[in-house]
Design brief:
The complex is a heterodimer. By secondary structure, chain A is α/β, with parallel strands linked by helices. Helices cover 34% and strands 27% of the residues of chain A.
Chain lengths: 262, 342
Amino acid sequence: MLEINSLSVAYGHRLALDNVSFSVREGEVVALIGPNGAGKSTLIRAASGALPARSGSVHVEGVNLRHLSVVERARRLAVVPQARNLPPAFTVYETVLLGRTPYLGWMGQASDLDRECAWRALERTQLTALAERRVGELSGGEQQRVLMARALAQETPILLLDEPTTHLDLQHQAEVLNLARSLASHHHKAVLMALHDLNLAGLYADRVVMLVNGRTQVVGAPHEVLTEQNLTAAYRVPVHVVTHPEYGSPLVLPDGREGRQP
Amino acid sequence: MSSIKRAYFINIGVLLAALTFSVAAGPVFIPPATALRILIDGLPGIALPVNWPETFSAILFKVRLPHAALVALTGAALGGSGAAYQGIFRNPLADPYLIGVASGAGLGAVLAMAAGWPSSLLGMYAIPAAAFLGATATVLLVYWLAKVGNSLPTTTLILAGVAVSSFATSLTSLLMLRSAEELHRALGWLLGGSILGGWEPVLAVLPYIGVGLAALVVSGHVLNVLQFGEEQAEQLGLPAERVKALLILAASLTAAAAVAFSGIIGFVGLIAPHIARLLWGHDYRRLLPLSILGGCSTLLLVDLLARLLLAPQALPLGIVTALAGAPFFLWVLRRAKNQVYW
């Protein structure tokens, strides 16, 4: 559903993504991992069309992103950016309703259907109680969920999430990722998310893409990618990988010996 | 009554009151009730028993009404374009005066005058066009100078506005010195005097301001989406660059037309939207029409003050708005520093 083909992106002369290729299929959650500065956010932005490709292409449902208008893109692909500098004065409901923009005219006249859709998105993200609160009064985690709800209101087959769990506590991390999981499993969406937390990636993703210095180091199932060898090479720190007692997914533990040594 | 209906109700009420006072006050006082009777009598097909001096109706139709109309249109243009610039630049301190648009429009208009277009009726329509070119060039220059990465910080916006504005004003002064003949007219006009009388300037300015404001009023939703920044706006399906260019053109057309006929009047574009925002929120679909109505009322009241304060001498409007507006601007600046949202 989402195909990244030999994609390269540059900031000035610096190559931020170098010949990256992988795809996200319908009903699949793909996690994007890698050390800071590896190009995770750049990839999310390039996949959404916000950054131009130097070479290579992004295909959405078989169509090259470059051949789609801005509106057509927004109907196929919704982005949950990191919650920073949101307009503080809009209410949660108003913000989520703006997710319907790709279906509205210039004047933005929302129909009952649009309002219903926005409200459903609030329900799914447990935000109904906050609907009339101003976004500026909310915590970072709540703002992150507002952006998630806005993306849901966009009703797109593809969801791109840029570190959706950064500001969230344990409970809301689980909620957001369970939601992403169920959107893929039950609503056949294709979900691509950049994740910092390797254990969450191992637990929720069908496949993991590991980026290092803008290149795809490894692509595969969590247990294939999240190995001691791969991680130690990528993050330049010794780690241990054990198995989740219940799900069998890989759990990554940092090696704490160095600091304890006399 | 919903809060929105109440907002419109209050604004229209204030506007009507301001209009009434504006046509009543002057060297010859016309009681508001009489003025209203004369107006109704003036409507086609209605004749009321005449119990007022003939001169009253002449003063009303030939002097007071066109004056009030020009002032109201100017105020509407300043309030509307101010709100729009604030939305486009995502900065609460954007105002056609502070970001140099007014000076740029003034320079354009004076250039046109120096080239010898004035006096004819064609000239009256051509000056706003020249002002529009000047305004658009200035706003693009200021935007380009003030932009830091993807944002437009208040400091750089105001600094760039001040610099470009001073430059344009100096050029204007230089031009006026060179063409002594036009000096007096242009100077009085630049100070914002609404000195042009009669219906002609009202009719000349109406199409520009009408088109500009209409384009802005229907763009409230688009401005709301733009508040999330260009990248998110595009991800929500809005071609941000093109939309912003369109809105800048509409706002500049409106502001330039106001400058072309009423001179450089500062701070109304800051005050009216700010009060509307404080009282009725930040949704641009409401904020734009409310700022336009508020701008009308504000400038009508300022004009009233300007005519009454040192009567029979009328003060230039620009001086009165600056006297009241500069302290207001400082207050907003301090508030913007202390508060999370504006």
